[in-house]
Amino acid sequence: MTGNAGKFADVVKHFFLLEVLDMKISMDPNTVFYDAFGGNYWTEITKAWQESSNSFSTARDFIDKANGTNMVNSVYYQLVSKIPIGHYRKDRLDYYWGSTKFAYELSKLRNVNTKLIYNSLEPDEVNSAQVLAIPDGAKIDYRVNDSFDVEDEYVIEMQNSNSGLLFFDPFFGGKRNQKEENYRACAEMLIKLKDSLNQYTNWSFIIWYPIRNKKENLKIQTHHDYARRNMNADIYILCDTKYGGHSERDINGVAMLVVNPPIGLTKRITDVEYEELSRIYKMNKSKPEFVVF
Ligand SMILES: C[S@@+](CC[C@H](N)C(=O)[O-])C[C@H]1O[C@@H](n2cnc3c(N)ncnc32)[C@H](O)[C@@H]1O
Questions:
Q1: pLDDT (tens digit, 9 = 90+) per residue, 116-133?
Q2: What 3-state DSSP class applies to 106?
Q3: Longest CA–CA separation in the chain, Å
Q4: Where are the domains of the chain?
Q5: How far apart are CA 120 and CA 147, in angstroms?
Q6: Cβ(149) – ligand 1 distance below 6 Å
Q7: For residues 273 and 268, what is the distance between their CA atoms, to the nearest angstrom?
């Protein structure tokens, strides 16, 4: 778990993801959610975890230091509480949810048959996701793949299911080479999937990018230019102008590149996400800025 858990970039990511998935589910209840970088399924939020991961600092002023886990006023809690089924008590948030867990809860809430595919490169993460999903009875297809390497699998899913969402959520962090490698691999995946995404237009592909500085922004722009020229694609950028980060490595903006966005996504994101995020971020005296290219 990185220091971004529960912070701005994470909240916006999950918020956006749920809006897109919800739109797709309402159009086709058998939509597939392919979480290529599944990560943590859910993690118990202890005071020690919170401190060691430097997480939830968007809600710094509201964290109950004495109890450690009482996140009821945190921005993250506001997000989770949009989905009223889950493993938290009324006045406490005890678990941090990952993207597959969010998708699972959303499909339960909507009472639909979303096929969930959880993938990670790390067998340990896959094992722990399997164990954690069992008490809840979540039916998930688990895979252990290098997501940058299995474009054939994505195409098979596209051929077999009428509607789906492929979600790419790499770290874009760590050592410089690893970061550059992630950018390069995402750009290549756009090229590899171009024809299939143009053929299976009910399949959407989202790539999440962090924005820390202008250089990163330019890199994302080249991916976006390629996607826009060759496919039906939009990019959504949300920056938190007041957050500013606490160090160079803090992420204060995110970009979501969406190939084959559901019709009406821009309006929904503008009307719902921006309004809602502005409302919940008021608690943090923050003013997010939102841009659609
Ligand atoms: C940013 S985290 C994902 C967080 C998760 N999607 C969420 O929203 O909670 C990235 C995850 O991808 C895994 N990962 C890293 N490189 C990968 C690769 N090449 N293929 C598949 N998984 C990878 C990591 O182990 C890590 O858990």
A1: 999 999 999 999 999 999
A2: helix
A3: 55
A4: 8-40+102-292
A5: 8
A6: no
A7: 7
Question: Which atom of ligand 1 is nearest to 185's Cα?
Answer: 19
Distance 209 CA to ligand 1 centre (A): 13
Residues in CB range of 282: below 8 A, 6 or more apart = none
99 ligand 1 Cβ < 6 A: yes
**91 token code pair:** 């006045």
Residue 149: is it exposed, middle or buried by C-beta count within 10 angstroms (0-12/13-18/19+)?
A: exposed
Tell me the per-residue pLDDT of 64-111, one tens digit each, with 9 for 90 and over.
444 444 455 566 666 666 665 444 445 556 677 899 998 998 998 899
Ligand 1 site, residue 98, Cβ cutoff 6 A: yes
Q: Could you say which DSSP state residue 272 is in?
A: I
By the 8 A CB rule, do 45 and 96 touch? yes
For ligand 1, whether the C-beta of 273 sits within 6 Å is no
Q: 8-40+102-292 has which CATH code? A: 3.40.50.150
The ligand 1 atom at the shortest distance from the C-alpha of residue 170 is 10
Q: In the structure encoding, which two tokens stand for residue 251, read together?
A: 């992420």
Q: Which residue owns the Cα nearest ligand 1 atom 9? A: 98
The owner of tokens 């989202």 is 206
Q: Which long-range contacts (CB under 8 A, 24 or more apart) does 218-221 make?
A: 219/183, 220/255, 220/257
